[in-house]
Amino acid sequence: MDIGERLVLVTGAGKGVGLSTVKALLDHPRVNVIAVSRNTDGLRELRSATTTDRLEILELGLLAPDACEHLKTSVGGRRLNALVQNAGVLHKAEMGSHTRAALERVFATNVFVPLEVSQALAPELSGDPPGHIVHIGSMGGFQDAAKFPGLVAYSSSKAALACVAQCLAEEFKDKGIRSNCLALGSVDT
Question: What is the pTM of this model?
Answer without folding.
Answer: 0.90
